[in-house]
């Protein structure tokens, strides 16, 4: 039961992580996907305050609150953005989430920076740094550096801004924080424009490349246009024209509307080159695009103001109605107490019925989900028990009371192999996967320790670069390891004081085959020669057939076994 609950919780966590990552990706291209990002963030926040309103999901709620704050800021609602980010910070501090406290601090700092309150901006950046230092949040240090660089650029301390931009870039590249890498390139492209224009152009190109990678072609074209302007200011007209051409070609090939700024800067390039016809042509395009953009933005602003007005109007109507209802209720209370009490009672019953109905629907869904999980678990247990029964049936015919302890220990290790497999199992949307590296390391050590040969020094070396594996493959691999390690511990080191057992599991990218290699430095044996005393070799051969694998063995210097399978 606990296993089923933990698997259900893990699946819910993975689902929420994917939804938050999707909103992040939509926010990266806010110009085209901003409304969709707002919609999905609002829907997810609603779920986190209703369906997922438990302690296990508090962190996700804070993450979505910060996303909503940034979206409010991008749409110009700075007051709402600041209020929501401060609420997220309070939640993170209340439940002691260091990484989320850190993130909330720099989001709050952005809001104050946008509002030009640089004193408060610096206050929260300092708080973010203290949180980073106390909890060693090295992987996200780059974000603090980027925000400090932006702050120093706003207060016109260019040297400090450059210092933090370079530090942020180094940290972002080290931990591959894509958003911080883009922001660092943008900052350096701006900060170095007068001091080292060639470096500034280079960083603008790198920023453009980053935006192309996330398919934000409009922003990429704007970075190329800014690079063109930087070159134009240095009277590098031919180079400036090349970058302007590249920006325009990128937008045309990707069928993206051309921002008016691209036409404006292109007109300026042609004007400096004394090509007045082209300059006039692109200036006209700029003017048309500018007017269209302004009209569109004005329409958006009018719509936003209208929606706010309608909302306020509805709220006023609701408040007036509430006052009227209250007054009428007070006037009628004396003569109709019984009716009012009955009405309240009926309303409470309806609300409770609605709540019960919703809970019943959720419980029904949960029961159906658990039935599926239980069915899958029963299927696995049935298959594993069938393995054990088959082995016991074969051993029943050849059991010897003199070696019954070895038989029991071997079967115990086989069962441990299957139990450990289920312990390492993780359920995903598409398949059941096992953390193979941890599984074979723990299994090999478990089998080795079960024989506890204190007079021998036996070393176990395990190397696995195959991270995940389906349970259909992991089970026979685990049983093969169990049989081989058991055989080595029982027979290989009888006349050797120091023993070495090597296990390797690697993936050949060229052929797509997985290679399993086992070796010990003990007394070798003929793998294909049937043993009359035990079933280990027959079990291993059967498991290899189950993997549909090919076998190579060597018994000259100890024992070596190589299996290749798809």
UniProtKB/TrEMBL annotation:
GO terms for molecular function: ATP binding; protein histidine kinase activity. The chain crosses the membrane at residues 325-343. It holds the Pfam family HisKA_2. It is an enzyme of class 2 (transferase). Keywords: ATP-binding, Kinase, Membrane, Nucleotide-binding, Phosphoprotein, Transferase, Transmembrane, Transmembrane helix. It catalyses: ATP + protein L-histidine = ADP + protein N-phospho-L-histidine. The keyword Transport does not apply. The keyword Cytoplasm does not apply. Residues 376-566 form the Histidine kinase domain. Its EC number is 2.7.13.3. This is histidine kinase. It comes from Phnomibacter ginsenosidimutans.
């Amino acid at each position: 039961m606990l296993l089923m609950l933990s698997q259900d919780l893990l699946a819910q966590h993975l689902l929420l992580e994917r939804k938050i990552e999707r909103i992040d990706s939509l926010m990266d291209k806010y110009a085209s996907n901003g409304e969709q990002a707002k919609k999905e963030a609002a829907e997810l926040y609603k779920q986190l305050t209703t369906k997922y309103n438990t302690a296990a999901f508090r962190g996700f709620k804070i993450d979505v609150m910060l996303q909503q704050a940034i979206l409010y800021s991008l749409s110009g609602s700075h007051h709402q953005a600041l209020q929501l980010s401060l609420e997220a910070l309070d939640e993170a501090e209340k439940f002691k989430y260091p990484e989320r406290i850190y993130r909330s601090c720099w989001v709050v700092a952005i809001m104050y920076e946008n509002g030009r309150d640089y004193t408060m901006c610096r206050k929260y950046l300092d708080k973010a740094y203290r949180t980073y230092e106390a909890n060693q949040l090295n992987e996200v240090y780059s974000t603090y550096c980027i925000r400090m660089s932006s702050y120093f650029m706003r207060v016109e301390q260019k040297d400090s801004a450059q210092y933090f931009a370079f530090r942020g870039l180094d940290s972002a590249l080290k931990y591959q924080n894509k958003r911080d890498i883009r922001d660092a390139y943008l900052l350096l492209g701006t900060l170095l424009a007068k001091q080292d224009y060639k470096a500034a152009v280079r960083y603008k190109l790198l920023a453009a490349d980053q935006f192309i990678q996330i398919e934000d072609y409009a922003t990429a074209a704007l970075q190329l246009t800014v690079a063109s302007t930087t070159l134009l200011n240095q009277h590098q007209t031919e180079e400036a024209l090349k970058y302007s051409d590249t920006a325009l070609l990128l937008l045309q090939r990707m069928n993206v509307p051309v921002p008016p700024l691209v036409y404006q800067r292109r007109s300026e390039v042609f004007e400096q080159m004394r090509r007045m016809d082209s300059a006039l042509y692109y200036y006209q395009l700029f003017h048309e695009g500018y007017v269209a953009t302004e009209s569109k933005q004005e329409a958006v602003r009018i719509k936003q103001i209208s929606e706010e007005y309608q909302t306020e109007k509805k709220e006023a109507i609701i408040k007036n109605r509430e006052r009227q209802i209250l007054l009428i209720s007070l006037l009628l209370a004396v003569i109709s107490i019984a009716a009012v009490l009955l009405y309240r009672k009926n309303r409470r019953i309806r609300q409770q019925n609605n709540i019960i109905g919703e809970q019943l629907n959720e419980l029904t869904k949960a029961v159906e989900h658990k039935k599926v999980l239980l069915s899958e678990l029963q299927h696995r247990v049935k298959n594993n028990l069938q393995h054990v029964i088959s082995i016991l049936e074969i051993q029943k015919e050849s059991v010897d009371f003199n070696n019954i302890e070895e038989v029991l220990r071997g079967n115990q290790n086989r069962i441990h192999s299957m139990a450990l497999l289920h312990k390492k199992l993780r359920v995903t949307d598409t398949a059941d996967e096992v953390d193979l590296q941890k599984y074979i390391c723990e299994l090999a050590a478990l089998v080795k320790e079960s024989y506890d040969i204190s007079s021998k020094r036996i070393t176990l070396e395990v190397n696995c670069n195959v991270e995940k594996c389906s349970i259909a493959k992991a089970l026979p691999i685990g049983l093969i390891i169990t049989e081989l390690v058991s055989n080595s511990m029982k027979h290989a080191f009888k006349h050797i004081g120091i023993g070495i057992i090597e296990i390797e599991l690697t993936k050949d990218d060229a052929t797509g085959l997985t290679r399993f290699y086992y070796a010990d430095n003990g007394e070798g044996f003929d793998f294909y020669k049937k043993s009359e005393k035990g079933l280990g070799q027959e079990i291993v051969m059967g498991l290899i057939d189950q993997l549909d694998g090919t076998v190579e063995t060597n018994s000259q210097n100890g024992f070596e076994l190589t299996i290749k399978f798809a």
